[in-house]
Design goal:
The complex is a heterodimer of chains A (112) and B (115). Chain A contains no helices and eleven strands. Chain A has 112 residues and is mostly beta strands. In chain B, 0% of the residues lie in helices and 56% in strands. In chain B, strands 2, 4, 5, 6, 9, 10 and 11 form a seven-stranded mixed β-sheet that branches. Chain B has a four-stranded antiparallel β-sheet with strand order 1-3-8-7, with no helix packed on it. Classes of the chains: A mainly beta (112), B mainly beta (115).
Amino acid sequence: EDQVTQSPEALRLQEGESSSLNCSYTVSGLRGLFWYRQDPGKGPEFLFTLYSAGEEKEKERLKATLTKKESFLHITAPKPEDSATYLCAVQRGGGATNKLIFGTGTLLAVQP
Amino acid sequence: DTEVTQTPKHLVMGMTNKKSLKCEQHMGHRAMYWYKQKAKKPPELMFVYSYEKLSINESVPSRFSPECPNSSLLNLHLHALQPEDSALYLCASSQDRSATNEKLFFGSGTQLSVL
């Protein structure tokens, strides 16, 4: 069965304190792994797509990496405005569907 | 314009009411989605429309009825809901549901409370 597990569930950082969020997955034929950011009461906002092991993507203070079993979202020198829930989702290959399987997310709080 | 617009933002309804949620996008996307998200849970897929035809129904109860009048609009008609249906309802769109690298653009959602 396809599964996406994110850890930790919640993370509190001081401004400037770098850290990483983890997304472990089991899926039949990974088509893509997606990272989204979600603010309270809002819809998820797309951050990155990763397709193959070894791939890395960067955007401002965020860097996403992918291995065959997990993905990491590295946050370098975070600011309070980075506080949000970060969702990981995987898309399974082998079918004409764009169904995403979401993890439960990591709630990040960055304190000034 | 890279927005998905959802109305209303908040909705309170009784179990005997009939209401509709609306979603609009003008990005030329041909796939549109309804997701349901309970508090502190990930979004769960409900329906997918591809080229204005329903292509996926994730065994959603019939009290939820989707409609896609044209390529830019998506509605979700609600009737005889239960309190456990209270959630954030998210609409999303993508260029084409079968393409690779198919990122979804989400709206801000409708926060629904069923009394």
